[in-house]
Amino acid sequence: MLGDIGGWVQDVIGYWGTFGLVFLLFLENVFPPIPSELILPLAGFLVWRGELGWVPALVGSTTGSLLGAYVLYGLGRWGGRPLVLRFGRLLRVTERDLDRAETWFDRFGSVVVLVARMLPGTRSIVSVPAGTLQMPLVRFTILTVVGSAIWNTVLISTGYLLGENWSEVEGTVGPISNVLVVIILIAIAGLTIHWLYSKKHKSKG
Questions:
Q1: How far is C-alpha 106 from the geometric centre of its chain's CA atoms?
Q2: What tens digit of pLDDT does each residue of 9-66 get?
Q3: Comparing C-alpha atoms, which of 106, 12, 5, 112 is closest to residue 52?
Q4: Neighbours of 23 (CB within 10 A)
Q5: Which residues contact 66 (CB under 8 A, 6 or more apart)?
Q6: Cβ atoms < 10 Å from Cβ of 168
């Protein structure tokens, strides 16, 4: 089954190029029929073979991710929980998923969008509570683009480095995402400490 899906993904990218990658990542974010853990390493492999440019692969995948995120954000913001749950089976979203995601927002704020974009299983769902809780669209866009770009860069690059063994990436996605989240959280903590220190220093001056 994985081989069949991989063959179809390769055909789409091979025929449509960057636009095919936009389509696949859009589809992955809205309906998740195929995981980005398959699409992106395969894209990296095609970059390795010279069939796709590295920058177009990153731009295309990030654009597709953002467009898909906008759909879920819009459903949450203008349709609310009832509309989202009405299409929950199609979107693979449950009421428990929404409750959990909204709890994350209550505890950690907007940074949840950035971190969740690098976690399998939450990459798409986080867009819904961002909409229902009416996160400003500009902030949502920036966090989604940054988080998606980091995730896409890592998986595309890993697929490129593995070459013909690109399919091995899927088994290491969990550890990869955990490392990314830790790095991001450390960076956020460092920036926060720096900001607080600078603010305190200025108030004394």
A1: 21
A2: 778 887 888 999 999 999 888 876 667 777 888 888 888 888 889 999 999 999 999 9
A3: 12
A4: 16
A5: 141, 144, 145, 148
A6: 12
**C-alpha angle 114-133-79 in degrees, rounded to nearest 5:** 115
The percent of residues above 70 in pLDDT, for the chain, comes to: 72
The position carrying tokens 């950690």 is 108
Query: Tokens for 205?
Result: 């001056």
Q: CA separation (Å) from 15 to 10, 70, 82, 150, 156?
A: 8, 26, 39, 26, 19
DSSP H or E segment with residue 21: helix 18-30
* Structure token pair of residue 116: 């969740």
Residues in the chain, how many? 205
pTM of the model: 0.77
Helix (H, G, I), strand (E, B) or coil at 175: helix
